[in-house]
């Protein structure tokens, strides 16, 4: 192996830059050449490749977003489009591609590996929705952003003795809501994994809290289960308590990565190059029980969701 390329794909996440830096620096240290690909699979198809050296990744460890830009590229699902991508990589002499993204991006990487390009995936998404790894790059930073917002909303919610519903991202995964809810001391946490969410039970809990002297009710709602404004209307009508909704939105995707995300990204990025150098392909890198691991992409994508029911139960007990 002589030359590798790297791209970021899907939604960006804080810490992607730290991961790019780790891959580039480890690869160069190991005697490899590195090319950056701009704008994910879309940029690859447009031939947006450029040579990177050690200085290409200077001064980026602290920056949110991704210096390589990112994109969603629906046409990459077509075999003939991926064949063209593989030909472009071969034309540039690239032997292997490191893809930083979520499960969709990994699927693209896996299919590309069948066309003679070695591929490795690094988990970059705020959603923490990849079952094979305990944490994804960006999750910790997003979590801290959400907790900061909850603290602020708590102040005004207490002053007005209101119910506040805070909608957070996560797609179909409730990890941001669960971890932010427990860290922010929320009264209720509503996640897509709760198949039996009952709006009336939530209203009963709110009224119980009020009758026991609670000054406010903070409810963390994961986007995957419904809209905050609709729920706020229902709660206000039933309980008679003033209720406000806040949708945190893309603020959760930005900002300087936390120390924890920087360390994670650095460890995962270094391991990706090691795994490539050992000749392996179609692997994803992750962290389990604080150990950096690699796993076959197919196996990783087939793993069942790892929603932490014990933590959810603890959050319920602590909020009563
Ligand atoms: P994420 O990687 O964060 O899950 P997406 O699901 O949007 O984000 O996927 C990112 C990109 O990965 C897509 O725009 C597409 O280019 C590629 N991709 C997703 N699913 C597939 C698939 N089934 N086959 C090939 N490429 C895919
Ligand atoms: O996957 C990351 C994520 O931020 C999800 O939490 C959210 O549902 C989605 O991306 C938003 O995507 P977009 O930035 O395309 O609106």
From TrEMBL:
Binding site for Mg(2+): 103
Top-level division of the source organism's lineage: Bacteria
InterPro entries: ATP_PFK (IPR022953), ATP_PFK_prok-type (IPR012003), PFKA_ATP_prok (IPR012828), Phosphofructokinase_CS (IPR015912), Phosphofructokinase_dom (IPR000023), PKF_sf (IPR035966)
Annotated catalytic residues: 127 (proton acceptor)
Subcellular localization: Cytoplasm
The keyword Magnesium appears for this protein: yes
Cofactor requirements of the protein: Mg(2+)
Enzyme class of the recorded protein, top EC level: transferase
Documented EC number(s): 2.7.1.11
GO BP: canonical glycolysis; fructose 1,6-bisphosphate metabolic process; fructose 6-phosphate metabolic process
Binding site for substrate: 125-127, 162, 169-171, 223, 244, 250-253
SUPFAM superfamilies: Phosphofructokinase
Residues involved in ADP binding: 21-25, 154, 185-187, 214-216
Residues where ATP binds: 11, 72-73, 102-105
Keyword Nucleotide-binding: yes
UniProtKB keywords: Allosteric enzyme, ATP-binding, Cytoplasm, Glycolysis, Kinase, Magnesium, Metal-binding, Nucleotide-binding, Transferase
Activity regulation field: Allosterically activated by ADP and other diphosphonucleosides, and allosterically inhibited by phosphoenolpyruvate.
GO molecular function, one term: monosaccharide binding
Domain Phosphofructokinase: 3-276
Family: Belongs to the phosphofructokinase type A (PFKA) family. ATP-dependent PFK group I subfamily. Prokaryotic clade 'B1' sub-subfamily.
Assembly with partners or alone: Homotetramer.
Protein function: Catalyzes the phosphorylation of D-fructose 6-phosphate to fructose 1,6-bisphosphate by ATP, the first committing step of glycolysis.
Record protein name field: ATP-dependent 6-phosphofructokinase
Gene source species: Clostridium uliginosum
């Amino acid at each position: 192996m002589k030359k590798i390329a790297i791209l970021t794909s899907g939604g960006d996440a804080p810490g992607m830059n730290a991961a790019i830096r780790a891959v580039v620096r480890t690869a160069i240290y190991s005697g490899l050449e590195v090319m950056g690909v701009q704008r994910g699979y879309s940029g690859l198809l447009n031939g947006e490749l450029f040579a990177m050296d050690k200085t290409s990744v200077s001064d980026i460890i602290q920056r949110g977003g991704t210096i390589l830009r990112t994109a969603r590229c629906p046409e990459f699902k077509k075999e003939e489009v991926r064949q063209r991508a593989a030909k472009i990589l071969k034309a540039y002499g690239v032997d292997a591609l490191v893809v930083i993204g979520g499960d969709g991006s990994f699927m693209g990487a896996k299919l590309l590996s069948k066309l003679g390009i070695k591929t490795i995936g690094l988990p970059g998404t705020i959603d923490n929705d990849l079952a094979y790894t305990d944490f994804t790059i960006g999750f910790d930073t997003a979590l801290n952003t959400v907790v900061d917002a909850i603290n602020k909303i708590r102040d005004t919610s207490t002053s007005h003795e209101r119910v506040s519903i805070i909608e957070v991202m996560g797609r179909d995964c409730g990890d941001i809501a669960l971890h932010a809810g427990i860290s922010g001391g929320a009264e209720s946490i509503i996640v897509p994994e709760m198949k039996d969410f009952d709006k009336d039970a939530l209203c009963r809990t709110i009224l119980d809290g009020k009758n026991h002297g609670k000054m406010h009710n903070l409810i963390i709602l994961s986007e995957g289960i419904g809209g905050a404004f609709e729920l706020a209307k229902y709660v206000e009508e039933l309980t008679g308590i003033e209720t406000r909704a806040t949708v945190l939105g893309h603020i959760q995707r930005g900002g300087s990565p936390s120390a924890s995300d920087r360390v994670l990204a650095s460890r995962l990025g270094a391991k990706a190059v090691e795994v490539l150098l050992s000749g392996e392909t179609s692997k994803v890198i992750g962290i389990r029980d604080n150990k950096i691991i690699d796993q076959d992409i197919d196996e990783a994508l087939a793993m069942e969701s790892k929603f932490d029911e014990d933590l959810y139960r603890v959050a319920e007990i602590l909020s009563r």
